[in-house]
Amino acid sequence: MRRASLPAIAFALLAARLAAADSRPNFLVIVTDDQRADTFNTRFPPDPDPFMPAMDTLFRDGVRFERGYVTTPLCAPSRASIFTGKYAHAHGVETNKIALSSTNFPTSAKLAPQLQTAGYYTALVGKYMNQWSGPVPNGNFHPPGYDFWTAIPGGGVSDYYDYDAYISGDGLGARGVHEGPNGKYITYFFRDQAKTFLQQAATRDQPFLLFFTPNAPHAPAMPAPEDADLFTAARPPVLDANRPPSFNEPAADKPAWVRDKAPLTPAEIATNVDAFRLNQLRCLAAVDRSVQELIDLLASLHQPVTGGTLLSNTVVFFIGDNGYYWGEHKLTGKNHVYEEAVRVPFAVRDFRQPGPGRVDSFHLVANIDIAPTVYQMAGVTNPPAGMNGRSLVPLLANPSIGWRLDLEIESWPPPDGIDADWDGIVAHKVDGCGTPQPKYVTYAETETVVNASTQQTIVEPEFYDLELDAFEMVNAARSTDPNVQKTVQAYSKQFHTGPH
Q1: How many Å apart are CA 26 and CA 43, to the nearest integer?
Q2: Which among 81, 102, 175, 303 is placed 20 to 30 Å from 409, CA to CA?
Q3: What per-residue confidence (pLDDT) applies to 103?
Q4: Dist. CA 479–CA 463, nearest whole Å
Q5: Of 26, 377, 374, 30, whose CA–CA distance to 205 is shortest?
Q6: Exposed (0-12), middle (13-18) or buried (19+): which is 37, by Cβ within 10 Å?
Q7: 416: buried, middle or exposed (CB in 10 Å: 19+, 13-18, 0-12)?
Q8: β-bridge pairing 332-333 and 121-127
Q9: How far apart are the first and last CA of the chain?
């Protein structure tokens, strides 16, 4: 019998090992900051083309989830849920003011360290967490689990040109960077750092995980120079045509914290709604161009051991960390229960699969589902225990499979200074409750009587059928119809027994 030479055997074993390693996909996770669900495919008539073509293409050619949610509509809790696959009550980062610690946010529970241990080349470029302030106690310029790191300290910047960042990674050393008033526009700074990482990733025989997390379109929402006057000519008709019926509504059937709010004044609408909205959209134009440049770079880079492009073996996730109010229900900002804050753009584009994509308008998915999905796709056999999210892999393959019946949305900070907590369930279908897209919300308000020590707990639930009342105009929890009340009571009972 003819025997293979030792060099041939060694080469075959090496090739097999590399092929096995390279079969694992790369991951690009794009997380925007305060981007609403209705902005990724914005069009401004009479122009028929999308003003953000890269996002539009990702969402068109991938699986776009119309019912994509964040489980806490606030930056730090939502990002912690992306990193851990857990609800905020499980990972412990319940507000922007809670610092990361080994107790509430252990390294072993986070996605990047897990994939780094599994052999991935890992990076984060952009915004991390609100309480991250720079060098960590071990002297590194980044938290454990990242090979490459470029991040701004804290939860945002006050100027898109004048900002601080910390950089560390292969060949870069470890240093702080300050861009002064005339510095590089921050989205393009992040774009270029992400490109550096991808170019390094192309030289390695291992897959990569890149979190690309620009701070746009978060306040102060300063557009890139070339976008400063975008939409100026179209401004009045565009705004008037897109006022939803819930805009500045009296909210007479809403809980006290909404009901008692004064309507937005014309000056507030002009500055805090209309001008800010346009600047958020203008900021997203630079994000869109940056995303396209990253996609183009992935398509041009080849890994020597496979001969294929990086893009052909990459899965892209796109999600916003929370939405934002543009005057709906008299509100601006976020961290409230209504759809504009809790629904976000959410899509998965697997470039290993040919298009076209599809729109999923039925299933409830959320930020907590990203980590379990990545773990399954990456072949991690022992992911962290206690994740609340579910892997999207079966749903991506088969839109007819059974899925979760409801999703919990939670928050702790008091809305607009009112001493209140709210928790919500956005439900898909629950036996006996009858409506296809019900949403139940309960509040626990604690009011302190002036000059007294007694407190009174007030519960003012809300209930909407989002299929019939997409703008949440009629709070059915106040209905006197016995059948409606029966449905609300069923949800109340189900909610207080915990999410499913």
Answers
A1: 31
A2: 102
A3: 61
A4: 10
A5: 26
A6: buried
A7: middle
A8: unpaired
A9: 62
> How many CA atoms are closer than 13 Å to the CA of 372, on its beta-carbon side?
20
pTM of the model: 0.90
A 10 A CB-CB count for 173 gives: 9
3-state secondary structure 357-372: CEEECCCCEEHHHHHH
**How many Å apart are CA 256 and CA 455, to the nearest integer?**
16
Interacting residues of 258 by C-beta distance below 8 A, sequence separation 6+: 251, 329, 330, 331, 415
Between residues 100 and 312, the one the model is more confident about: 312
Beta strands per DSSP E along 59-120: 63-65, 68-69
CB atoms within 10 A of CB 218: 21
pLDDT-based confidence at 64, cuts 50/70/90? very high
Read off the pLDDT of residues 353-395 as tens digits, 9 standing for 90 and up.
987 899 999 899 999 999 999 999 999 999 999 999 999 999 9
Average pLDDT, integer, range 123-128: 97
Residue 209 near residue 123, CB atoms below 8 Å = yes
Token pair of 182 as six digits: 């005339």
Q: At what angle do helices 75-84 and 370-378 cross, to 10 degrees?
A: 20
- Cβ proximity of 413 and 130 under 8 Å: no
Kindly give, in sequence order, each residue whose CB lies less than 8 Å from that of residue 120, ignoring residues fewer than 6 positions away. 24, 27, 206, 207, 208, 209, 378
Q: Pairing state of beta strands 406-411 and 332-333?
A: unpaired
Number of Cα atoms under 13 Å in the Cβ half of residue 209: 24
Stretch 241-252: mean pLDDT: 89
CB 160 within 8 A of CB 181: no
Residue 226, pLDDT > 50, answer yes
The 10 Å Cβ neighbour count of residue 277 is 23
Nearest to 184 by CA among 165, 212, 210: 165
Q: Enumerate the β-bridge partners of residue 302.
A: 309
Is residue 5 over pLDDT 50? no
Which pair of tokens denotes residue 371? 């980590």
